[in-house]
């Protein structure tokens, strides 16, 4: 199975989390990492 890596960046409140959640809904197994939490 081919793996993908998406790096999503942007200003606060621009929808990064929403995009990650949409990817999880369409692609299945998705891991979202928040750089502020690392």
Strand/helix succession = H
How many β-strand stretches? 0
Tell me the β content: under 5%
What is the CA-atom radius of gyration, in angstroms?
11 Å
Helix content: 25-40%
How would a textbook summarize the main sheet? none
Mean pLDDT: 87
Number of helices: 1
Distance between the termini: 28 Å
Gross morphology is globular
Counting helices, strands and paired strands, the structural category is mainly alpha
Please mark out the parts with pLDDT under 50 across 5 or more consecutive residues, or reply none. Answer: none
How is the topology of this model organized?
Blueprint: H1 16-27
Characterize the structure shown.
The protein has 38 residues and is mainly α. The chain is built from 1 helix and no strands. It has one helix spanning 16-27. The longest helix has 12 residues, at 16-27. It is globular and about 35 Å long. It starts with 15 loop residues before the first helix and ends in an 11-residue tail after the last helix. The mean pLDDT is 87.
Features:
single chain, 38 residues, mainly alpha, 0% strand, globular
């Amino acid at each position: 199975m081919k793996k993908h890596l998406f790096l999503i960046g942007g200003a606060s409140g621009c929808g990064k989390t929403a995009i990650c959640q949409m990817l999880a809904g369409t692609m299945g197994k998705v891991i979202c990492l928040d750089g502020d939490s690392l």
